[in-house]
Automatic annotation (TrEMBL):
InterPro entries: Ald_DH/histidinol_DH (IPR016161), Ald_DH_C (IPR016163), Ald_DH_CS_CYS (IPR016160), Ald_DH_CS_GLU (IPR029510), Ald_DH_N (IPR016162), Aldehyde_DH_dom (IPR015590), LUC3-like (IPR044086). PANTHER family: ALDEHYDE DEHYDROGENASE-RELATED. This is Aldehyde dehydrogenase family protein. Signal peptide: none annotated.
Length: 469
């Protein structure tokens, strides 16, 4: 059933003009996105700055209630938001996709509303007393990605508001309508000007990162863009949380059960059609289980329908944009040219409508092949054979990124021992990418710094202030 999203679009589209946004699955026009000017950005920051002291002065309980009210508002508009997200981003309604993402927005808001940072007494003896308090920073500048535009926006918005900051958020230029609609719904439950969206192109984001009244930048996106943002923010010594690119490794141990793990392995790699920073992007499998793991993954992949997101049966969708499609196509071609064995997929239909790339599994591939060492960010998984576990661990740790990783085994204790040797912000056992609003999440190496979620995430959007006497 098609849900009418026009009411949402009418509230966020400009009266005239704007940039046209097209459905990556069908090529159809979704809507027109406004593009803020430099003057409108200045106004947004000024309004957010003016609203921040009053928001911070509210009680902790009041801010918690406001987040719950915002979650209620999303639930009321959940189906319309999911349909708009599916049309703009391309992800299907079902599976771990559009409805899942909107539901995650609600869950993260509610969980964050219940977290709190109480003052911590550090010293209280004859020498004196020292108490650590957590104060708001001011105005947080949030810059989000196009792969999970609503959910990751909430990861930035919820803790910032919870701690008494206000937020100016710039959506990705690929998915502005989803975030504008989300902000519109949130603002039906929030005080004026504590959350303001400023859609626009990259130069607007650059102005946001350099703005002297922005106290912190939260960014999720590529490592290359993250490095640029870090340089831009240096002159004003902004606090930063950077969740950057990854190329997550998974290691299957020789005691694993391939058939039992196959579906979890598949979704670890192909959630959101592979367009996830912490997706499984290279899989290392022992020679003794190699063919069985390959066959089990092919059986799962054959039964996962790909197509237009609004068609209820589909669980895999298109790449969100042409540039990303071309990256995946280039890397798969590099694998094929090297003589690697394509188990399924790898041959996109010429002239097809939409940026669809078939679900692709590639075996017998060299560990130095570009499909292995470069982040594909799409529906193509290289499966690398190993004969020595030490070699697999070395391969897993050899790249300059380290967002997530995983170990797959029938022996949890053995898996934990291997996990402890992997360089990553998160390592999962017998699952991959399983995030939780209570558990800190962040990267190692060039996958970024700072963490999100839980009380650790609240600290990232707060200024520690020690009062001693």
């Amino acid at each position: 059933m098609t849900v009418d999203t026009q009411e949402l679009l009418d509230r966020i589209q400009p009266a005239q003009g704007g940039r046209e946004i097209f459905d990556p699955a069908t090529g159809e026009l979704v809507g027109r996105a406004p593009e803020a000017t430099a003057e409108e950005l200045e106004d947004a920051v000024a309004r957010a700055k003016a609203a921040q002291p009053g928001w911070a002065a509210r009680s902790d309980q009041d801010r918690s209630k406001a987040l719950h009210a915002a979650a209620d508002a999303i639930e009321t508009n959940a189906e319309q938001l999911a349909h708009l997200l599916s049309r703009e981003q391309g992800k299907p309604l079902n599976g771990p996709n559009a409805r899942f993402e909107v539901g995650a927005c609600v869950s993260w808001l509610r969980a964050t509303a219940e977290f709190s940072l109480e003052p911590e007494t550090l010293v209280d003896d004859d020498s004196g007393k020292a108490v650590l308090h957590w104060r708001p920073l001011g105005v947080v500048g949030a810059i989000g990605p196009w792969n999970w535009p609503m959910m990751i926006s909430i990861w930035q918005i919820a803790p910032s508001l919870r701690q008494g900051n206000t937020v100016v958020i710039k959506p990705s230029g690929y998915t502005p309508l989803s975030v504008l609609a989300l902000v519109d719904v949130l603002n039906s439950a929030l005080p004026a000007d504590v959350l303001i969206a400023v859609p626009g192109r990259g130069d607007l984001g650059e102005k946001l990162t350099k703005h002297s009244d922005i106290a912190k930048i939260m960014f999720t996106g590529s490592t290359a863009t993250g490095k640029h943002i870090i340089k831009n923010a240096a002159d004003t010594v902004k606090r930063m949380t950077m969740e950057l690119g990854g190329n997550d490794a998974g290691i299957v141990l020789d005691d694993a059960d391939p058939k039992a793990l196959a579906e979890d392995l598949f979704w670890g790699a192909f959630i959101n059609t592979g367009q996830t920073c912490a997706a499984l992007k290279r899989l290392y499998v022992p020679e003794s289980l190699y063919e069985e793991v390959c066959e089990s993954l092919v059986e799962v992949a054959k039964n996962m329908p790909m197509g237009v997101g609004l068609e209820e049966q589909n669980v895999l969708g298109p790449l969100q944009n042409k540039s990303q499609w071309e990256i995946v196509d280039r890397l798969v071609k590099a694998a094929k040219d090297s003589g690697a064995r394509v188990l399924i997929g790898g041959d996109p239909e010429e002239g097809a409508t939409g940026y669809f790339y078939p679900t692709t599994l590639v075996a017998d591939i060299d560990p130095e092949n570009p499909l292995v060492v470069e982040e594909q960010f799409g529906p193509a998984l290289p499966i690398v054979k190993y004969t020595d576990l030490e070699q697999a661990i070395e391969w897993s740790n050899t790249l300059n990124v380290g967002l997530g990783s995983s170990v797959w085994s029938s022996n949890p204790e053995r898996a934990e021992e291997v996990a402890s040797r992997l360089v990553a912000g998160s390592t999962w056992i017998n699952k991959h990418g399983a995030i939780d609003p209570r558990v800190p999440f962040g990267g190692a190496r060039e996958s970024g710094f700072g963490v999100e979620f839980g009380t650790h995430g609240l600290k990232e959007v707060s200024q520690p202030h020690v009062i001693s006497r």
